[in-house]
Amino acid sequence: KLSGTLSKSAEPVKQAAVLGAGIMGGGVAYQSASKGTPILMKDIRPEALDLGLSEASKLFGKQVERGRLTAEKAMQGLNSIVPALSYGEFKSVDLVVEAVVENVNVKKSVLAETEDHIRDDAILASNTSTISITELSKALKRPENFCGMHFFNPVHRMPLVEVIRGEKSSDKAVAQTVAYAQAMGKTPIVVNDCPGFLVNRVLFPYFAGFSLMMKEGADFQQIDKVMERFGWPMGPAYLIDVVGTDTAFHADRVMAEGFPDRMTHEGKNAVDKLYELERFGQKNGKGFYRYE
Ligand code: NAD
Question: How do the domains of the chain map onto residue ranges?
Fold first, then answer.
């Protein structure tokens, strides 16, 4: 309902920003820039900014190779992603997407800090996978300007965006976030707030079922093969490597706390062990599988 009506009256986002230049932040920056909305990309590590920009550059390069963009347009797009280590230019920003690590305390402190550097009417949206938007909003002075904006990985390929309405999110915040998702060529759905929202309430119990089978002695490669034959684009082990075992580990904790009867498991599962071994998945070249 909202995406069809309210978003029409929303102000277009002319300048965006993203916090975090990792898998998701880098993807959001590329998608925004490629659809014509300039974006500041802030991280606390210069090397993360370099990686985020080089990933975006590769994606623009592919568009040129496929004849979908001229080299000039690709260069314009890439130049509209402005890397930042400080909040210097954040007063010009209409909407900020927060995409830092999946940790409630880190997110709260980053969101509160950001709120001090943006205009009173700017919207803050978190790309959290699982953490309650109402809980995160407790760190803010203007919780009405805050909602969830949950993209899926890889951002440039996955059409869905969950826009999450927290207890205090205003219609304006939700509508503007919906409008921005549409401007990025995505399909937004407005969902209510709870740990995991909609998609991850389905996905994480699936991961939990997979982990349980591994504890019972199943082979992850066989499970992956079977799920592919079943018709899914990839099996659970490969998908967890794409997500990152660190993100999956943190998100699993949030889900277990939110749904203790459905999600808790005794002892460590495979994802916990990979995380402890710092096998973070594709992002550092080793997880369930090895990547060159
Ligand atoms: P990532 O580890 O790839 O990137 C996180 C980035 O945040 C790093 O570059 C880090 O340097 C940066 N960072 C940390 N503290 C910061 C700060 N104070 N200011 C600015 N940058 C900071 O993680 P990711 O996979 O991109 O996940 C980011 C968020 O997106 C998480 O909340 C995660 O749950 C969510 N998410 C992830 C996926 C996925 O498949 N990986 C999908 C949907 C949503």
Answer: 6-192, 201-284
